[in-house]
Design goal:
Elements: H1 8-46, E1 54-55, H2 57-60, E2 69-74, H3 82-92, E3 98-105, H4 109-119, E4 125-130, H5 138-156, E5 162-165, H6 176-183, E6 189-191, E7 194-196, H7 205-227, E8 238-241, H8 242-251, H9 265-275, E9 280-282, E10 286-287, E11 295-297, H10 303-325, H11 331-340, H12 343-368, H13 379-407, H14 409-417, H15 419-441
Parallel strand pairs: 1-10, 2-3, 2-5, 3-4, 6-9, 7-11
Antiparallel strand pairs: 5-8, 6-8
Length: 465
């Protein structure tokens, strides 16, 4: 049939067919990628190379550490939670050799006041005020904290053994600090899992974070650790040896170990340490009470704040990361970086898939009314659709199982129904991230578009047990 003879509805049928091929092929590629990780995970479990050891909490919690440790927390407009975070951390980690550094800005007096109240009577706390007006970037604030650490070392004649990075809303595990301290004997960068806390008033938006982290920090990260592929730090629950930070600072020409121009300095930190030949370790351990030793926190509970947070992740990792980090020479690391940076493409494919749902439904109605021909499904297209349907079922089952293991069967069931919401957030974040990236290419300055925190899990009644 000539193009001139095609009706508008016929053009829609052709469009639907082409979009179906596009989405199906890229979904299949994504499926093969995920199945490779699944297969490696199962092989590692079967061979005993991937396991989660258990420890007796009573012998670990409060145990003395081998040398001075600095904990750094950058804070901007965190007056609602910083006090609770500091008090909980100091109670959970009573080790005398611990020192907590909280970074604030001169134009944020509320956070300075809240941190000062929490530090009252605590000799282990330093409040560091940045001379620049905030917000700059999280990395810039951490560089200011690093300079404060150097100053204390010079004045007091001491040398910290490690620096632990946390966010202003984190709830630390009492056993975490001794574990990180012991791990420094084998690695220069150690990362604990992150466990988002359930919230009664946001079972869906905040809930989708528990699904994603439950699977990522129980499977993908442990596989990368087992394969000795460089993995990104999470920016919380991350310990770096003091000597490695000094080397990173030296490599940066003395501008600081954290790149102040990066939106995702945490992601880059782990990869930089691995690239420089430093050993990294993902520390996944359970206590004898069955609880994972991890960093717990509330994650965004509204659609707007979730999209804003994930925009920063996508822009920093997938878009800026391509420019800033390039590609490693090792094929294994290259594969992992492809996985890290596939967010915008995955979002595009998901958008096309949801568009196809509406387009196919509309064409089916038009066909029943005699306004359009039935779409032609070739054997190859049919095979792709069957493969992708099976893949969707497998992915949903994996998501449910990993979520149920940490949060119980009811959350495992909810995890399946939260998948569409997770996809929608990813699509919205990717569109916003591309716009931000283009803005930066045109000379714009990207600032710390941080998530605001109103409640802390250590004191809030929002938390579900």
């Amino acid at each position: 049939m000539l193009a001139a003879e095609l009706s508008p509805v016929d053009w829609l049928v052709l469009l639907q067919h082409e979009l179906l091929l596009f989405a199906s092929l890229f979904f299949l590629l994504g499926t093969l990628d995920e199945l490779a990780i699944d297969a490696l995970y199962m092989v590692g479990r079967a061979r005993g190379r991937i396991r989660t050891p258990r420890i007796d909490r009573s012998t670990v919690e409060g145990r003395a550490i081998a040398g001075p440790a600095a904990v750094i927390i950058p804070a901007w407009h965190e007056d609602d939670v910083i006090g609770a975070t500091m008090r909980h951390l100091l109670d959970a980690w009573p080790q005398a050799q611990l020192r907590l550094y909280v970074g604030c800005y001169a134009n944020d007096p509320a956070t300075i006041a809240a941190a000062t109240r929490a530090a009252r009577g605590q000799s282990r706390v330093r409040i560091v005020v940045h001379s620049a007006c905030g917000p700059t970037t999280k990395a810039d604030c951490m560089n200011r904290l690093y300079r404060a650490i150097e100053g204390d070392e010079r004045r007091e004649g001491l040398r910290f053994r490690m620096v632990v990075i946390h966010d202003a809303e984190d709830m630390v595990d009492p056993a975490a600090l001794p574990l990180l301290d012991a791990g420094l004997a084998k690695a220069e960068l150690l990362q604990l899992p992150v466990l988002p806390m359930r919230q009664r008033r946001s079972r869906w938006v905040s809930g989708h974070y528990i699904d994603e982290f439950a699977e990522a920090h129980a499977k993908a990260m442990v596989v990368r650790d087992w394969l000795r592929a460089g993995f990104p730090s999470a920016g919380v629950g991350c310990a770096v040896s003091r000597e490695r930070l000094a080397l990173l600072d030296l490599q940066a020409g003395g501008s600081g170990p954290f790149d102040a121009s990066s939106l995702t300095e945490d992601y880059e930190l782990g990869l930089k340490v691995a690239e420089a030949g430093g050993a990294t370790k993902f520390v996944r351990v359970r206590g004898d009470d069955g609880r994972l030793i991890a960093t717990r926190a509330f994650f965004p509970r509204t659609l707007e704040t979730a999209v804003r947070q994930k925009t920063r992740w996508v822009c920093g990792i997938a878009l800026q990361g391509w420019d800033r980090m390039g590609w490693s020479g090792r094929p294994l690391d290259g594969w992992m970086r492809v996985r890290d940076r596939r967010g915008p493409l995955s979002a595009l494919v998901l958008f096309v898939a949801y568009l196809l749902v509406f387009l196919t439904g509309g064409l089916a109605i038009a066909h029943q009314l005699g306004l359009a021909r039935a779409p032609v499904v070739t054997p190859a297209t049919k095979a792709l659709l069957i493969a992708n349907a099976a893949s969707l079922g497998w992915r949903a089952a994996c998501r449910a199982l990993f979520t149920a293991r940490e949060y119980g069967p009811s959350e495992g069931v909810r995890a399946v129904f939260r998948i569409p919401l997770s996809n929608i957030i990813a699509i919205m974040a990717a569109r916003r991230a591309v716009a931000q990236y283009v803005f930066s290419l045109l000379g714009g300055t990207l600032r710390w578009d941080k998530t605001e925190h109103r409640e802390h899990p250590a004191v809030s009644q929002e938390m579900l047990a």
